[in-house]
Fold this sequence. Notes:
By secondary structure, this protein is α+β, with helices and mostly antiparallel strands.
Amino acid sequence: MNNLCTDIGFNSINKKGEQLCGDHVEIVEQNENSFVLVLADGLGSGVKACILSTLTSKIISTMMANNLSIEDCVATIAATLPVCEKRGIAYSTFTIIRINNNSEAEIIQYDNPHVIMLRGGMNYEYPRTGMDIEGKTIYKSKLQLEKNDVFIAMSDGAIYAGVGKTLNFGWQRDSIIDFMVGNYDKKMSAKGISQLLLDECNTLYGGEPGDDTTIAAIKIRQRIPMNLMIGPPSNPGDLKKMQTLFFAKEGKHIVCGGTTSKLAAEYLGKPVVPCLDYIDPEIPPIAKIEGVDLVTEGVVTMTKVLEYANEYLDGTISISDLSIRKDGASRIAQLLFEEATDISFYVGRAINPAHQNPKLPINFNIKMQLIDEISRKLKEMGKNINVSYF
Length: 390
């Protein structure tokens, strides 16, 4: 087994005046290292397009994940979805990307703009073979993966961006390739790549999209482990075990909480050096311990991390927004959202006496709920999560 993993990110903007997006992205895991992604673009816009794209993506992803042929998928969709009375078309366009064991990619495309592939930061023209299924031309590709390969799938809203406004004929695929190559950063995550391209589309539309626009990006990355410890164990006798496991783990180490930091410093035989600068008045300052990559306060900081996770997933903030902030919560978010692929939480169940003050809106369950919620959000970002309680 190679040391690669698959990073996935996607974002959408709705056509001006529409509450629902006519595009839909569906992801189905076959196993830990294999999955199917489908981006479907429903006919028209609004409710009808939303229903068509959702059904199309769910049917195809489920069938492909169960190793049915693309011929069966297309035939099933044609027989299942309603036919448009005006145009006589029964289903939406679609792009399928299947990753097998993080070593091979299969791309199947029907009428969406063709997937852009970057290898080494440059455009890579992968082979395509056309085939006729149910009277439709379907393109298939299969290729071996390399570290930092990037695949960018999009609905046709991307190539229509700017029509009649900033561009006469929209944003052609070659121009999109030039933009992505020119802005390529090997450190950027799939989510960051999709957001970068979608933001540019929205700019070309003048903030008033003339069509639903969706960008889905897949990046083949080397696994990067990250470890976060918060809270001392409920049984003091487990402290050494917890810290030994934590510091023995490969990857960067984040320690959260005043008591946790003090105990970690004692374990390492190093002092805690506080940083007294309040970069953000709402977030306690960080500290430093030699041998620890980041030291922060606990519950208040992690509550902010959860807030950032929600905003990051819905596109309200980007990693570039977080990267210019230096407070503890923003720095944790950068490490977990963008850099890490595999995240291990070490959570102590000890009750903090300070949290028992009835005047404070914090109790023992808050810490557990925070980690559960943050873990769930990180899984939505495609991270591999392991939580150990002590």
